[in-house]
Design a protein that fits this description.
The complex is a heterodimer of chains A (280) and B (131). With 280 residues, chain A is an alpha/beta fold. Chain A contains 10 helices and 10 strands. The longest helix of chain A has 16 residues. Chain B contains 9 helices and no strands. The chains are: A alpha/beta (280), B mainly alpha (131).
Chain lengths: 280, 131
């Protein structure tokens, strides 16, 4: 039987990818950011997943305004890194897991979550930066990845509650897959940040730290935070945090936080990161 | 009946909602075209001529030529799409964000290193800002 063993939450700031690709990880500015991932790199070497369901958002890379799916699952064998305007990141291609992805698609739609199926899709920094943060710079990624894209660009994104419930549906789908697979689910994006307008640069450490606290022990209530609170408190782009709730919904009611990291700033953004393990 | 927009009282912030997405459609699709290197070259070679190939309003075209990102946003531009313009110009997200706040790049960077713009005074329009 396939089982979800752990969840990872992490920001996916593009400048972090650029710092890795350009060899800047040891600079004064970037060193503290990457130090926050030392534990997790070691942890994942010892807890190697077969498949990661990677919840992220596309940033006008694969999806322009020609199509805006609210929830989309990547069912292909392979996904190439996107050219976001300055050439694709020099990272390996992403190997998919079509058999599990299609299984999740059918199961989750039967649980009333109407996913869009994507078979041809380039994946941008939202997906590749978390992989780089956890796995470094390998020749090939050490596991297969199911891209799970959430619209958080065009308002309204799905609600936190909807995301949390979707996570539960994904969990049921994985639990009903016969092959013996160690599956992790990652929720990415956030934390507080605003990239636009005169209020750009907004950071809310209190909000972010309360979010990290509640993600472990108070997720049911955390999922009820309305969009407006994210916008007002965590910035217009802080609303990406709803994606963390998909990850959390797919874990057990009770989890153990193995690692927690918070740092300001990476470019315009507060970096948050957690590793959560299921407790029976 | 009009859509409910409870976010309208958040200062310095434009939510890319249904109305803005509709208004900015051609502006944002022009931005998407800059994902391709040959289009970037053509745009850099003749900005006005390239913009005239798109069904954008004159106001939108002027905002692009002036690289006035706040104006582009008010005309339906979305920041992730507009990023294609400043990337074409060789600018980072940090530089673009600084330009929208009216701060120099150095002052903006230093604000971020100091912990970012505080939410205090920046939650509701009309609050006294200290950010």
């Amino acid at each position: 039987m396939a089982r979800i063993t752990a969840g990872v939450a992490t920001s996916h700031v593009p400048a972090i990818g650029a710092a890795i690709d350009n060899g800047l990880t040891e600079t004064d500015y970037w060193k503290p950011v990457f130090a926050g991932y030392d534990f997790s790199k070691e942890w994942i070497r010892n807890n190697q997943p077969d498949v990661v369901i990677l919840v992220y958002n596309d940033h006008a890379s694969a999806f322009g305004m020609n199509m805006v799916p609210t929830f989309a699952i990547g069912c292909a064998d392979e996904f190439a890194p996107a050219d976001e305007g300055w050439g694709p990141r020099p990272v390996p291609k992403i190997k998919g897991c079509p058999e599990l992805a299609w299984h999740i698609m059918q199961s989750v739609i039967q649980s009333d979550f109407d996913l869009t199926v994507i078979n041809e899709m380039a994946v941008d920094h939202g997906l590749t930066v978390p992989l780089s943060l956890l796995f470094g710079q390998p020749q090939a990624w050490p596991c297969r990845v199911i891209p799970f894209a959430v619209n958080v660009v065009v308002y309204p994104p799905p609600s936190g509650q909807r995301c949390y419930q979707l996570g539960k549906a994904i969990r049921r789908a994985v639990d009903s897959f016969d092959e013996d697979l160690n599956v992790q689910i990652w929720g990415t994006g956030g934390m507080s940040h605003q990239l636009q307008g005169p209020r750009a640069g907004l950071i809310n450490k209190e909000f972010d730290n309360a979010f990290l606290d509640r993600l472990v022990g108070d997720a049911e209530a955390l999922a009820k935070i309305p969009h407006l609170d994210y916008v007002r408190e965590a910035g217009s782009e802080g609303i990406e945090l709803v994606m963390w709730l998909i990850m959390r919904g797919a874990l057990n009611a009770k989890v153990r936080g193995l690692h927690r990291f918070y740092h300001v700033p990476a470019s315009n953004t507060a970096v948050g990161h957690m590793v959560l393990e299921n407790v029976d | 009946m009009a859509l409910d927009k409870p976010y309208a009282d958040v200062p310095g912030t434009t939510i890319f909602d249904a109305d803005m997405a509709r208004r900015g459609y051609h502006l944002n699709q022009f931005c998407m075209s800059l994902m391709k290197a040959p289009n970037r070259e053509r745009f850099k070679g003749d900005q006005r001529g390239y913009l005239d190939e798109w069904q954008m309003t004159e106001e939108q075209k002027q905002a692009v030529l002036a690289r006035d990102y706040n104006r582009m946003i008010s005309l339906g531009g979305n920041i992730y799409f507009l990023a294609k313009i400043f990337s074409t110009d060789g600018q980072s997200f940090e530089q673009a964000a600084a330009s929208m706040t009216g701060l120099t790049r150095e002052a903006y960077r230093s604000m971020m290193l100091g912990g970012g713009r505080s939410p205090k005074g920046n939650r509701y329009k009309g609050e006294k800002t200290d950010g």
